[in-house]
Amino acid sequence: MANILIINGHQKTGSASGRLNKTLVAEMKKVLKDELNHKVKTTTIQKGYDVAEEQQKFMWADTIIFQFPIYWFGAPALMKQYMQDVYGYGVFYQASTDGYGHGGMLDGKTYMLSSTWNAPADAFGNGFWQDVQTPDTALVAMHKTQSFIGLKPLPSFSCHNVMKDPQMDEYLSQLRQHLITVFG
Prior knowledge:
Blueprint (H helix, E strand, L loop, with lengths): L2 E6 L10 H17 L3 E6 L6 H10 L2 E7 L7 H10 L23 E7 L18 H4 L1 H9 L3 E2 L3 E3 L8 H16 L1
Parallel strand pairs: 1-2, 1-3, 3-4, 4-5, 4-6
């Protein structure tokens, strides 16, 4: 049994209410807690947060799952603000004699990115995305941020065509299978 923190990083905009991210987080909780018997805590950034409490959640967690939509090819500004606030020096990272990027203090913990994209999955490596082969490649800054604090990656999950051609049942089925594979 693992301790898992799920962070809903959705930021409401005029065209995005957050229903998909909320549904995916609910499915994660159901599968991880009810089916796989893990302990689960959540944070919905948009509802506000206490920095010290969030830092304690990270210390409690074995794994952190970041659920967020892609806005302009990256995480929403609110999610980046959360990391700026919560990832404190001396708590999550410190100076290192081994060089830049080696002072992470969350060694032994893992993370998983779960993102929602309007881009279709087959767009990566083609056309506009010809130099970007996968969603993980596009999210290199998010991966490097987690590496900087010492977290190790688990396989990512992503949903595509979420506004042009949403397939909710398919997303939930794929997410469930992904969670069972990674955490089962």
